[in-house]
Amino acid sequence: MGVQSKRWSSSDIALLKRLAGTYKLAEIAKKMGRTERAIRFRAGELKLSLRVDKPVWSEEELKKIKELRENEGLSWEEIGSAMGRSNAACRKRWQRLEGRLCDREAAAFTQKLSEFMESRRVPARHAKAILHFTVENYG
User: Are 6 and 34 in contact (CB under 8 A)?
Assistant: First the structure.
């Protein structure tokens, strides 16, 4: 015997449409009193995106993060709290500001590029030059 599901009313669907893209899946499920699976399924049927877009960094935020890191010497956790963003988001944005990629991202990018060149059968003499150029300019 399966689990009894609650029917979707037109007001439930309207609420889902309002919440989708604004709140995370878990928050929508809690607000609606439904499972995440039910929310994901109904959103898929309605062709709604549950993706919450990340807010764009303003110029003021970029100046503030640089100031907090360089002048104040705060930890990423403290910076994240001060900025109202996650510490990881602040750290990654600062690294991009400074023209750096963290080693893990650079290594992953290099691996993807190598696999791409192999799949396209780029000759070794060109592949080496492309990798060198990419690492010099983007890594």
Answer: yes
Which region, left, alpha or beta, applies to residue 123 given φ > 0 means left and ψ of -120 to 50 means alpha? Answer: beta
Sign of CA dihedral 99, 105, 107, 108: negative
Q: For the CA atoms of the chain, what is the radius of gyration?
A: 22
The SS3 assignment for 20 reads: strand
H helix intervals, 46-123: 59-67, 76-83, 87-97, 103-119
29: nearest Cα among 48, 11, 43: 43
- Residue 77: other Cβ atoms inside 10 A: 12
**Cβ atoms of 59 and 48 closer than 8 Å:** no
Beta bridge partners of 20: 23
Q: Does the pLDDT of residue 33 top 50, yes or no?
A: yes
pLDDT band at 1, cuts 50/70/90?
A: very low
Global confidence as pTM: 0.42
Q: Kindly state the tokens that stand for 54.
A: 């990340």
Q: Which of helix, strand or coil describes residue 23?
A: strand
Domain ranges of the chain: 10-45, 59-97, 103-138
